[in-house]
Design a protein that fits this description.
four-stranded parallel β-sheet, about 45% helix, six-stranded parallel β-sheet, elongated, about 350 residues, alpha/beta, about 15% strand
């Protein structure tokens, strides 16, 4: 392997690959406007010569840092690392670096400072609302942004989420078609667009089936495992308990399953439980949770692609896409398939 990478520059790479220096620059920046055959030839030369581009020099020349910021909250929520993994894979494939801010511990001050100092080229929000100071700062300065697994009504920027409302309606239809009639909902805070849309879909599905949702079959809390666990215990111990509990996401469902186990209630023999998200843990034997899976890999790919398009072309139109969901049937609903309904 060659060991003189610091003596090389992009002109040397261009000469060895038989292309222009501009083509090398496009490959290094992840620009999609390069033929795949040419891209592979340039990458092969870069690997052969062990070329390491000077990041500072690139930033001075292009006014781009090659760094994308990602804003998260509740990083202990298992879906967050899964989203970050998919985003990191996509950004790496485009030659970009990723820096992550956890607003639960750091607040948004660090993100706002990074925006003002122009040390990031774009931002991905996995958790944000209309009151987000970081989002307001990004919009004001014109830094490209994208939301993944979030939808903000009226936002004129890239937004990629699953069809939460439609997916939840499908879940309600499944429960009703399976013979469930006393269907309860346990949800998290409704300031999250995902949870609000899912609750709306469940309610619509039950209403369309002529099934009511009495107050005793509804509970919500801020995110805390013990709170959801206790809500499940209280709900199942009341007279005429529910025969199914639809949860706003998989993590809530995990807590509900813990509460039902503590109360000595059998799942699925006495009550069914469903989640939403389809995170990896939902398929573990200890949970075996019926859930609605959203395609995080496709959402991450679309998010990164749109963001880079906006970085390279300020006139690129923002994209707003809703991805379909997939009902994953497992043990918490007795493995009752749709084909038998």
């Amino acid at each position: 392997m060659h060991t003189y990478s610091q003596k090389l520059n992009s002109n040397d790479i261009a000469r060895h690959a038989g292309v222009s220096q501009a083509t090398v620059s496009r490959v290094l920046s992840g620009n999609s406007n390069v033929r795949e055959e040419t891209r592979q030839r340039v990458l092969a030369v870069i690997e052969e010569l062990n070329y390491q581009p000077n990041a500072f020099a690139q930033a001075m020349k292009t006014r781009l840092s090659g760094t994308i910021g990602v804003v998260v909250s509740r990083i202990t929520n298992p879906i967050v690392p899964e989203v970050l993994l998919h985003l990191a894979d996509e950004l790496t494939a485009h030659g970009k670096r990723m820096v992550v801010w956890n607003t639960d511990t750091e607040g948004e001050a660090g993100v706002v400072n990074a925006i003002r100092q122009r040390v990031i080229d774009g931002l991905v929000f996995t958790a944000a609302g209309q009151q987000s100071a970081a989002m307001a700062s990004a919009l004001q300065t014109g830094i490209p942004i994208a939301c993944i697994n979030r939808h903000i009504e009226g936002g004129e920027f890239n937004q990629f989420a699953c069809s939460n409302l439609e997916g939840a309606r499908t879940m309600a239809d499944y429960l009703v078609a399976s013979g469930r009639r006393r269907i309860a909902i346990i949800n998290g805070p409704l300031d999250r667009s995902t949870l609000a849309d899912r609750e709306a879909g469940l309610r619509q599905g039950l209403q369309d089936a002529g099934i009511g949702l009495p107050d005793k079959y509804y509970a919500a809390s801020d995110f805390a495992h013990d709170k959801f666990r206790q809500l499940a215990i209280e709900m199942i111990e009341q007279p005429s308990p529910p025969d199914a509990i639809a949860c706003g996401n998989d993590v809530i469902a995990f807590a509900v399953l813990c509460g039902l186990r503590a109360a000595g209630v059998g799942v699925p023999d006495e009550v069914w439980v469903t989640g939403f998200d389809g995170i990896e843990m939902s398929g573990w034997d200890v949970f075996n949770l019926t859930t609605m899976r959203q395609p995080l890999d496709a959402m991450a790919s679309a998010t990164v692609g749109a963001l880079i398009d906006n970085i390279e072309n300020s006139e690129a139109e923002p994209r707003m896409v809703r991805f379909g969901t997939e009902l994953i049937i497992r043990g918490t609903t007795a493995n009752m398939p749709l084909t038998q309904l």
